Amino acid sequence: MIRKIVLILILTQISTFAFAQKRKKEKEVDPDSSGVVSDKLMPTALPLLLFDDKERKEKKKKDKKSKNKNIYYGQKTKRGRIRQTFRSQTQFQNFFYTLDKKVVDPYIRDIYWYDKKDNVIRTKDFDPSRGYLLHGPYTKSFDTTVVEEGSFFFGTRHGIWLTYDNKSVLLDKLHFSEGWPKDSRVSYYNKATNQIEKLTPIEYELQEGNFFHFYEDGQIAVTGEYHFGEKVGLWTEYWNNKSKVVRKREIQYQEQPFTKDFRPFIRAEWDKEGNLLYRNEERARN
């Protein structure tokens, strides 16, 4: 009888411990448990290179002087090639990549890198342990017909990018500066000191890419993404908190542009200390 009671007590303790661990784990993975954001995930400096014409000209002059093989923008690179067959056509991607583990610019939406393990080129979630940033000339062709060509600068599209149809007729011509479309709109609190208020990426006269709004002291105020001129995904507002980056509110927009019958909704809200004030429980379950 005593042995049976002891066994029941042990099983009860194990069950209680397991339940507590489960609750703890659920709390740890709850993305809304705190509005405080790790500074590592946020931009820490304004993208001055986009507007620094002097530095860009010096970089261009340095590149002209360098005539060594496989050196682009003053950086030594390695050559890569990916071959894939689609039905009756063979696609070739010829590119160069750098072994330099440069920190990826958090302002740029699309960072192109070569995933050496899977032998593919990716544009999201750069992982230095799996691959390398593209850097230098790039061409994509089907059989012998080039359909896209341009150049990369540490994973970002840079300079003139051209796309063609299967008869080599020019379809598009875009201009980039280290990942930023040249037509991007910038507003300032003080232009003389590059005190930026808003960065709005523009392609084909439409908003396209990551949007940033800053407080006057330089801290991030709003982040979001445009696609074909439409707000998409999660847009986040932040408190102007001097000591830490804290989410204020998240608004969920359509995942794909021009989605019919979708109405944006507030997903969650937090106070200045990062304590959760509101969460759309019904939407969170779906």
UniProtKB/TrEMBL annotation:
Keywords: Signal
Signal peptide (residue range): 1-20
Top-level taxon of origin: Bacteria
UniProt keyword Signal, yes or no: yes
Keyword hit for Signal: yes
Protein name: Toxin-antitoxin system YwqK family antitoxin
Organism field: Shivajiella indica
